[in-house]
Amino acid sequence: MRAHTPADATERARTARKGGAPPPDLELLVHGVGGTTPQEMLDAPCTSLVTGDETAAVYRRTEDVDAERRPPEERQEPGREGPIREAYVWCNLTSGNSSRALWLLLLPFMVANLAHWMRPPADRRERTVRTYGLFVRLVALSLTVLLIAGACEVALDLIAWQCAGSADCATGKSWLGFLSPENHGWWSQPGRRLALGAVLPGALTGLLWYLSNRTWSAYESSPPLERPVDESAPESGNRPALCLPGFWYGRRIVARLRAAHTAAGFLTIAAALTLPTTTYDRRPGGSGPQDAAGWALLTLLALGALAVVAVVCHRGRSETRVDGELDRLTITALPGAALGVLVLSVLYAGWSRPGWASAGKLPGNQAFCAIAIGEGVLIVAMAVCALALHRSAPLGRTPLYGLAGPAVAMLACGLGSVLAGGIAQRVADWLDGGATPGEGPGIAPPVLLSWLATAIPALLLVLLGLLLIFAVRVWRVRNRLLPTIMDGYPEERPDAVRTRRIASTVARAGLTDSAPWIVGPVALFTLLFGALAVTGAWATDEVPGRAADSAPGVVDAAAQTAQALGSWLMGLAFLMLITWARRAYRSPAARRTIGILWDVGTFWPRAAHPFAPPCYAERAVPDLTWRMETWTRRYGGRLVISGHSQGSVLAAAAVWQVDPRTRGQVALLTYGSPLERLYGRWFPAYFGPAQLLSLHREVRCWRNLWRCTDPIGGPIRLPDGSGPEVDCDPFKDPLAYGRTPEHPLPAPILGHGDYQADPRFDRERAGLLARLPEQTPPPAEESGQMSSGRSSG
């Protein structure tokens, strides 16, 4: 494949002007989730790279590469009509590299980051908006602390403190023999064992920093096309945030948050080392110098924690301009100072204490209760802010009365607990020879983790009940639709099996609109069960199976069963996550399947959690913006940006970013689009009715194609009554009910895919082009301006 340079483009423009040829039309295709190949998008076996790299690029059919410099009669092959077609392929942004399999471990962080963008729209309540964002960032910080605390629980408590300190557990484990007190070696003292165990959580913190820094260099550090803010644009809700030039450039805030979260990880490890050591040094008759050193370290830990919280609370994201500044002192000094405190903690723990022996659980593991309580308080505070925002500007289709963000944040905390607790439960089970963790005198994780595991079967029963309710609902909707299916095929002979299949597909597609009534109850019960688990662990200091020993037999048996089953389920969830990550690392096909999750979850910038997978839109939206700006200015032609599924969201975001002149030459074609059905409902502050109406008014023309059988795409439903101008009537699906001369075999139910197979697609695209004004080639000096001007990237 040969990449064509800006000099080639300038020469083509000059050739076109010399011949007096009218400028060509262009269709810029943007694919949806899961990715595809340029050959499939362009329906051509041979394609050529036009611009881009191995991560994201624009392709054309090989015979169309030089179409702009040909006379109009030679631009198309005989029998092929329509504009020149280009394909923007961005799937490698989420599923290309094998290292992206590690992103599965970042799932709770990604979900927490989504909660930041799910706030209700603000009606002149900037302080409430900032408070909401502050609470989300603090929840995200707690997830980092929780994950590192889980690693400390495994390495420091279960292995270095409990198992290595017990002759029964260490026997038969050669890799632990040198730590056993029975050998009286240098590493046998508890403090030194803890210092050695700190290597594992320290390495995990370093890995998280590395992944964030690597993706930050590849995504957030690429500036978008610089342009001035349109000061004449309407303010507040009618001026969408996605039109601001700095929206897709989060370099500064990610760097600040990465420094804070890295420091939080190091300080968490330092606290896990220092608290049990100072507990021993403060005993009667303890050493004075060691006690003083312990207090000094505790003071440094407190000061470091305050500094981390202060940085997280600072508002560093700027969207009204491309903010290329970096807070060098913060991003260097904060994690460096925290690492220094960790090193001092390691040295302090390694101080010789000949009389110290480890027994029971590691002192300080009650921190899990403190983390759980803190997360619950923060999520309730988020809910209060979200309700206040929703009441100030209520929208009818906003899910859960504006509480979608807090609900999703609660699910992120639940996922974090499963990730942190699952490995602790399985490691304790492995070290204890298969016994239920917490039962008997063997190796046991913190009591709270056993209580949380016990809640999992109850939560699954709630989820199963909800799924049964929705299954009944689908059955009822299908039966209601059965008499109406043949209205779309009046000349066809009815077939009961075919009719039921079509009606079932339509009924299942409608479940997307009911998703809030699964997310909401699951989040609510997660919060309630979490509160009960914290209460039970705090009140009894026993695992549920033992706490219920004095209860009636049925209750005792239920507690024992739930505890054992929950422990296995929590461990199984963690093992499944590791298995999927390993499979995705080895298999590109599996990585592409898992990449669908990232296509949906990583559209938004990392505004809350820097360790979340990177935002691919911070590369894709500037790519599309640059392509539309440069092509229209060089050739002066009409352009249709054509987006399917998630590609329609990228297309809309890119149209918002181009300047008004370019927008006047661009038409927007969306199909299978979740713009209103998913993004408009779950992210109303950015894709709500006012924002979509603004897009409709600012873009030259817009057409949205959809099907009733599509579970993702749907109509736009503009609030001013102009919806039919954007939305077409739903596409017929299937195209033919029975066998016809055009369809001798049964036509498939397409649902979310292959909108181009419908003949109406070409007609709708042609209608969009007809609504764009005829263009003339730009002057020579203007067409060369973009190619010779300075690039901000």
TrEMBL record:
<protein>
    <recommendedName>
        <fullName>Integral membrane protein</fullName>
    </recommendedName>
</protein>
<feature type="region of interest" description="Disordered">
    <location>
        <begin position="1"/>
        <end position="36"/>
    </location>
</feature>
<feature type="transmembrane region" description="Helical">
    <location>
        <begin position="333"/>
        <end position="351"/>
    </location>
</feature>
<feature type="transmembrane region" description="Helical">
    <location>
        <begin position="131"/>
        <end position="151"/>
    </location>
</feature>
<keyword id="KW-1133">Transmembrane helix</keyword>
<feature type="transmembrane region" description="Helical">
    <location>
        <begin position="517"/>
        <end position="539"/>
    </location>
</feature>
<feature type="transmembrane region" description="Helical">
    <location>
        <begin position="401"/>
        <end position="428"/>
    </location>
</feature>
<keyword id="KW-0812">Transmembrane</keyword>
<feature type="compositionally biased region" description="Polar residues">
    <location>
        <begin position="784"/>
        <end position="793"/>
    </location>
</feature>
<feature type="region of interest" description="Disordered">
    <location>
        <begin position="60"/>
        <end position="81"/>
    </location>
</feature>
<feature type="compositionally biased region" description="Basic and acidic residues">
    <location>
        <begin position="755"/>
        <end position="766"/>
    </location>
</feature>
<feature type="transmembrane region" description="Helical">
    <location>
        <begin position="559"/>
        <end position="581"/>
    </location>
</feature>
<feature type="region of interest" description="Disordered">
    <location>
        <begin position="739"/>
        <end position="793"/>
    </location>
</feature>
<feature type="transmembrane region" description="Helical">
    <location>
        <begin position="371"/>
        <end position="389"/>
    </location>
</feature>
<dbReference type="InterPro" id="IPR029058">
    <property type="entry name" value="AB_hydrolase_fold"/>
</dbReference>
<feature type="transmembrane region" description="Helical">
    <location>
        <begin position="259"/>
        <end position="280"/>
    </location>
</feature>
<keyword id="KW-0472">Membrane</keyword>
<feature type="transmembrane region" description="Helical">
    <location>
        <begin position="292"/>
        <end position="313"/>
    </location>
</feature>
<feature type="transmembrane region" description="Helical">
    <location>
        <begin position="448"/>
        <end position="472"/>
    </location>
</feature>
<feature type="transmembrane region" description="Helical">
    <location>
        <begin position="194"/>
        <end position="211"/>
    </location>
</feature>
